[in-house]
Amino acid sequence: MKRKLFRSGNSWALFIPKTIIELLKIDPEKDSIELIVENDVLKIKKTSSDE
Fold first, then answer.
1. Which of 10, 30, 35, 36 fits 43 for a cystine, CB–CB 3.0-4.6 Å?
2. What are phi and psi of 34, to 5 degrees?
3. Which residues contact 32 (CB under 8 A, 6 or more apart)?
4. In this structure, is residue 28 part of a structural domain?
5. Long-range contacts made by residues 35-42, C-beta under 8 angstroms, separation at least 24?
6. Is there a domain that residue 3 lies in?
């Protein structure tokens, strides 16, 4: 799946489709995510609520 980045202030934003949020069982209102870069690959991982 290809996605475009969007300007957000001095940063860039990536919109994540609802289907992916649901597959990862992420509640955007409560959960946090971790961004991991390995070998030019961006990984998104749900973190536990106590991290």
1. 36
2. -115, 135
3. 46, 47, 49, 51
4. yes
5. none
6. no
Q: Is residue 29 part of a domain?
A: yes
Query: What is the structure's pLDDT at 41?
Result: 96
DSSP letter string, the chain:
----EEEETTEEEEPPPHHHHHHTT--TTT-EEEEEEETTEEEEEEEPTT-
Q: What is the pLDDT of residues 2-50, one digit of tens each?
A: 999 999 999 999 999 999 999 989 999 999 999 999 999 999 999 876 6
pTM of the model: 0.67
Domains of the chain: total:
1
Q: Answer yes or no: is 9 within a domain.
A: no
